[in-house]
Structure prediction request, 201 residues.
Amino acid sequence: MTALLSRDGTNFSLACDTCGQLVANLAPAMGTWQVAWSLFVEDGWRGAQRPTGPHACGRCATPRSLGMVEASFGRATPPGRGPQPVTWRELDGVTVVELPGTLQPATHARLHDLLAEDIRPTRHVVFDLSRLAAVDSALLAVLVAAHENAARHGRRICLAGGAERVTAALRMLSVEDLLPNFPDVPAALAWLTAAPPGNRQ
Ligand SMILES: [Zn+2]
Prediction:
């Protein structure tokens, strides 16, 4: 990811995935990722429209194939605390993934692997965020990758029960349309199981 969320989720920085150049404290002047990125593009930055990148600064010009956060998921988990258990269940043919209240770093990689390998991409997925206090860059990278994977298979993902500080961070990073949030799991299921116009199956 290259739009790095601040620890409290109310500000963001832009990092070049190639050289690591960091432009910090963008929210006060730019408001949202969309506004910030349109200005950085004029400044020679290149890369994905999405805040998860990859992005490259004007000197580096060619973005890597993966953003730095997503690339880190492929590396071995460092010694220390292992991933927390992540539970998921099938409900009305939709996979519901329940996230714990706070995520340890290794859990992001575990979630990423789970979504890539274990959860069938042929199903819609709801991420139950009702216990989650805040969203961070790594979780956002996982969620956006999940959205892209689902979209490739003609499926959708959404969030349920996201707290105000979580949804505010999603709006700031201009991904609220990619990752729509519903008050609870039943509301999310209702949205997912109502096929979009022209795509009924
Ligand atoms: Zn660079």
Observations:
- Residues 137-152 form the longest helix (16 residues).
- The chain has a mean pLDDT of 87.
- The first strand starts at residue 3 and ends at 5.
- DSSP finds seven helices and ten strands in the chain.
